[in-house]
Amino acid sequence: MKKLFVLIALVTVFTSCMNTPENKPADSNSESKEKSAEPIKSMEKSSPETIIVKNITQNPEGIEFDANDQTFYLSSLNAKPIIKVNLDGSYKAFTGGEKFPLSTAGIQIDANRNRLLVAGFNGMELMDKDPKTKGTAFLRIYNLKTGVIEKDINLSSLLPNANAYFANDVAVDKQGNVYISDWYAKVIYKVNLEGEPSVFWKNNTGIPSGLNGLDFNPNGYLLASIISVNDKGLYTDYGLVKIPVNDPASASLVNISNAGYTGFDGMLINSKGNVVGVTNNSTSPGGNTLVELSSNDDWKTAKVIHSKTIPASTTVAVTPNNLYYVINQDFTNNNAKDWTIEQVKF
Q: CA 228 to CA 207: how far, in whole Å?
């Protein structure tokens, strides 16, 4: 999530957007459309190839699909509310009740516990060039039905000596423990069901990069992306690490045997147990590819089995019938108001 040039764009984005009047979220019928949503199976019939979200300076970084009502959630680098988007592109603000605004990156639905889990960070502080400020990292937990915030957990307080903080992505295990990657502090935090935070894992792989995309494998471990972005906006110093949740000290790098993988920004584990994520083409900033990795030895090794060139994107969502959607960004246009959710087929 989460590229260096994303943050560079934030300098102008925050300045230009903080004084922009909030756009009206959706047409007057948006709420009734959500309530009358058809069952999940209708997604197979409609499955729009593109969904256009118009007239909002959202600058979304994370995307998640809600199977309960067939909507997408989009986060906001511009520190605006997370929005809920219908398949026809209509939308409304979903989250609220926070004491202070934060930029939001990765988002994760925990349907079993009626929670929307959100990685929040202070984008303004990261870019203010003040050596005394270094951002912050939070886990924000919202009620999945109402959008009301239930817990607001400061993660950066666990590492007061870190150079900077950038809460990036979120995953949840079977017991409801939440894991949050911090790209700048180079750690993964853990928050238990009681809301108690701890530092779960520090990057000691020898790859000098931060933690980006991650997801939980039901076999009992996290798969997490380690990645940096160089001054040309290309992915570098990357790797994929397997971290057992009951023994994080035994974490190991996954050996990826063939070409096509150059590190993941956002990623997920699909119903087959494969990893699908956004990688760079090693040629141009924003030159992205959606890649699927597969492993036949429980992620000691893996290989690229599918890849598809996509527009500039940071991450991917999947529907129950295994349709992949990316949110297209144009970080060169700091005043962009239209965003495209696009279906990707391998």
A: 9
The whole-angstrom separation of Cα 319 and Cα 341 is 13
Instruction: Kindly report, residue by residue over 267-307, the tens digit of the pLDDT.
Output: 999 999 999 999 998 888 888 999 999 999 999 999 999 99
Q: Which residue has the tokens 């995309």?
A: 213
Residue type (1 letter), 319: T
Q: How confident is the model at residue 127 (pLDDT cuts 50, 70, 90)?
A: confident
DSSP assignment letter at 111: G
Distance CA 275, CA 292 (A): 6
CB 257 within 8 A of CB 302: yes
Contacts of 221-225 spanning 24+ positions with Cβ under 8 A: 221/245, 221/299, 222/171, 222/179, 222/188, 223/254, 223/267, 223/269, 223/275, 223/299, 224/181, 224/188, 225/263, 225/264, 225/265, 225/267, 225/277
Reference 107, options 119, 95, 94; nearest CA is: 119
Instruction: Fill in the DSSP letter of residue 82.
Output: P
In order of their start, the domains of the chain are: 4-23+45-344 (2.120.10.30)
